[in-house]
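Here is one chain, start to finish.
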Amino acid sequence: MKKFDETFSPDIKEYIEKNMQPGDIVMVENLRFNAGEKKNDAEFARNLASLADIYVDDAFGAAHRAHASISGITGFLPAVSGFLMKKEVESLGALLENPGRPFVAVLGGSKVSDKILVIKNLLKIVDILILGGGMTYTFLKAQGYEIGRSICEDEQLQYALDMIEFAKNNKVKLMLPVDVIVAPQFAENAESRNVGIDAIPADWEGMGIGAGTSELYINEINAAKTIFWNGPMGVFEFTKFAESTKKVATAIAESKAVTVVGGGDTLSAIKKFGLEGKFSHVSSGGGASMEFLEGKELPGVAALLDKGNGT
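Its structure:
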């Protein structure tokens, strides 16, 4: 393998033309070190294209970026998707276009704001939307519950109410916790209690969904034909509070449904609980997969489709 310390230069081009043999690899410097990459500069894209005969994009995780090496380069040489890109688009596309039903989406994580658009888009498609993790306390507070010192985005309270109404109007079963695990402080070995959502102490905070909620969620998961999962059900990083995420993750892994999962924390939980290889598809693109499910056009995918190369 030959490594160059530049993103592009006449020396690189000359080396490729005169020295490369079948099976050889040339690696150039990180493309984002060049200002033309993020700007999707046409001249930089043209220079990159001059180094090759064909462009293969297998970086789905970067497909939501309109950068020179992702979308710009496709204007200057034949471009096709790689195997991973193809699988990502087909797996995620199937969720939006023709999912087996019941279609259950399981969303967790700490912030509603991270998933505003994907929640709204999924409520147009799924039969059941299950919410867990820190985001649920915004929904609970919006409905008038005392949530103590639990994480909450007050600026999203109206959005939460709107989504509850949107789900009702779309005949989607939106499931929120009926009980939660709470602790007096955010700590690994903190005291814990399993309480109903109407009994959260004012000076305690939520650490995850409760046992009763886990059971309700698992019942829906077991009956599903298609499942999309993104985000933990609680503070799974602390062993004492990991059980709810573990139960839900295991139920999804053991389901006979088509299971598509994604997101950095989700992948960490899968690894923590030893569930690797037990899902139909594990998406490699955090931001890209969420934007895809929001219904947005990804520049890296659109560029390939525009060329008639497909994915």
